[in-house]
Amino acid sequence: MDKPIPLRKIIHIDMDAFYASVEQLDNPELRGKAIAVGGSSKRGVVAAASYEARKFGVKSAMSSITAMRNCPHLIFVKTRFDRYREISRQIREIFLEYTDLVEPLSLDEAYLDVTKNKKGHPSATLIAREIRQKIKDKTGLNASAGISINKFIAKIASDHNKPNGQKTVNPEEVEEFLEKLDIRKFHGVGKVTAEKMYRLGIFTGADLKLKSAEYLTQNFGKSGLHYYNVVRGIHLSEVKPNRIRKSLGAERTFNENISSEIFMLERLENIAEEIERRLEKSKVAGKTITLKIKYSDFTLQTRSKTISYYISSKELILEIAKELLYQEKMKNSVRLLGISLSNLNTDKLEEKEQKEEIEVQLRFEF
Asked: What mean pLDDT value characterizes the chain?
């Protein structure tokens, strides 16, 4: 017998162009202008772009060179993470006025479960509107929100009326909303997966819904069952205030391409030291070490090794990173190196999520 699905009212709050908006807030001369937060050097990367810059195709994770090519009048501003964290804490305090079930995803977005909230308010839609107004009053920044029956749909919904808007997908609207959705809008479906779905004739949620669980599992592995469920509105992941870390790492982009393995080892030692500090701060250790290499032609390669015990010391991390570095000959000069640890000792604490197929039939005020 299927277990009843929990009745939830989930809000996803997403700050609009957060880093760029903070810079425009603090410096009136930047308001209304195309700005990018990040490095302007030839090795720089855009961390965030204002909406004025986005009109020219500038977006986060884009190289500075490409960004300048798209928008010659682009203004680069250095990142100020202390300031972003300060404002993020102010926003978090507003969330906690309504619920303790707050799951931060980053400095600028979070899930809130307001099914039972501190205000005793029956409407998640009105709560989201109140929160967005309080954020505006306290920080001067705009936020967008998505409201629905689970985290998956709420996150998709928060993109619909950006910037400075919100969208509610009520329980009775879930099916139609997901069926009409372009498959690229499904959270977790990246460019490669979307292209594969296109080749299989899957362009919308309706197309995805026609495929059986067996078919999707055969073509997409474990993710197939996830796609089968979410297109039916089934996503049982709870809002977790103490979100369990899945991995921890650090990486460095170099001012000049590196071809000498001696120089690479020096950089890896610095990265390993940084990871050791982060592991100590987080009080975690890991079994799987992954070396990330980005070559001068921008091709990306990862090499991983899993050992039988948990490690957190710089020496052991570096030893395995060296082994992975020498695993095969370098294809080209290198512009970026990174190390990450996964398979952490927090994994055993992760709650197992239910995977039963459950019919969603929720009736409560949104």
From this structure: 88
Same domain, yes or no: 77 and 157? no
Phi, psi of 298 (to 5 degrees): 75, 5
For residue 151, give both structure tokens.
């985290």
The reply to whether 204 and 225 lie within a common domain is yes
Do the annotations mark residue 207 as ligand-binding? no
pLDDT at 352 over 50: no
The domain of 98 spans 10-15+87-172
**pLDDT for 163 beyond 80:** yes
Q: Establish whether 350 is a catalytic residue.
A: no
Residue 108 counted as an annotated binding residue: yes
DSSP state of 199: H
Please report, in angstroms and rounded to a whole number, the separation of the first and last CA atoms in the chain: 28
CB neighbour list of residue 166: distance below 8 Å, 6 or more residues apart: 125, 128, 129, 132, 144, 145, 146, 147, 157, 158
Query: How far apart, in whole angstroms, are the C-alpha atoms of residue 246 and residue 258?
Result: 30
Over the stretch 230-249, which tens digit does the pLDDT of each residue have?
999 999 889 988 766 678 88
Report the CATH number that the domain containing residue 38 is assigned in CATH: 3.40.1170.60
Catalytic residue among 109, 214, 251, 280: 109
For residue 216, give the CATH number of its domain. 1.10.150.20
CA separation for the pair 63, 57 (Å, rounded): 12
Domain count of the fold of the chain: 4
